Amino acid sequence: MEKPQFVRFLFLRVDPAWRRLEAGVQRVQKQAFVGRLKDFRARLLLRGYSLVGTRGDTDLLLWQVADDLDPFQQLETTIFSTALGGWLTISHSYLGMARRSVYELPDGPGQGGVPPRIQVEPQDCKYLFVYPFVKQREWYVLPLERRQALMEEHIRTGRKYPNVRLNTIYSFGLDDQEFVLAFESDDASAFVDLVMDLRHTEASRYTLQDTPIFTCLQMSLHDILDSLGGAGEEGKERSHARDRSAGGTDPSGFTEVATLAEVPTEGSGRRVYLGAEAIALFRINGQVFAVSDRCSHGRASLSEGTVEAETCTLQCPWHGGRYDLASGRPAGGPVRVPIRTYRVRLDGDRILVG
Ligand code: FES
Fold first, then answer.
1. Protein residue closest via CA to atom 3 of ligand 1
2. Less CB within 10 Å around the terminal CB: N or C of the chain?
3. Is the distance from the beta carbon of residue 280 to the nearest atom of ligand 1 less than 6 Å?
């Protein structure tokens, strides 16, 4: 038996006055915010997105998936107990749960006695498109066979776009809308094509509401907070300054990202930036390793993970996924996709990454 999952989409907006705070205060608030949210890693699945640049009435989304409703309340209380939380307001909130569809999916996993997936498993896609969805009441008085036929046309249209993945969240009884639809894709234009195509299906005539639509960009929590403006992380600004400075990148393509003194010698790592890319640096037995800072499973910040010197492996701080530091290959836990590794060169106490 699959356990039902509850899902929440929490959209937050920052008070513009926060951007006028002193830079050091902004940095401390950002770090404390990330630190408090990290405590929730074992209680729910949490994905963060920025909407800066895509919508005017909200700034960030925290997509949450949990086995019951309590973690959502605890997380929100924690958010509003932080100093940064005092500058945040909820712009939109949608609650629902994963549930088996009443319709048979043509040519899909629902056929042949195999039940369709009811778990919500966010993918590693760049974009998420979210909107509440309500059907006209006339839809529900149609005979089931008629609705099944209309849904088959609808589903067949959706399958023409395999690079767009749909999560259907059921909100009946829990929240104001009937569904929340969350589409994941790396290709924003494919999603637009899909929406246009779905407009031509018969089932679309029964749509009562499918707005507002939120176009969200997946990022680490650190990057989301930096997208709000104000002072960025100190290391990030230094890295950008290095990039900009003459000689920041040498002719062989290596860029100075930190000094040895800035990277802890055991256990943990340090996040640095190479342009817009976040990189996690680790020092083990006198050697420096550089890997992508984003876990391929749930986008946790890997520089906050722990390393084991004996096996030269890195453990993700969220769900314990493990990677081989030299190759970036998965070495245990829920991770399946390798992370990117970078070449490292030392020049005195300067660490250069290529
Ligand atoms: Fe799940 Fe890293 S985010 S193992």
1. 298
2. N
3. no
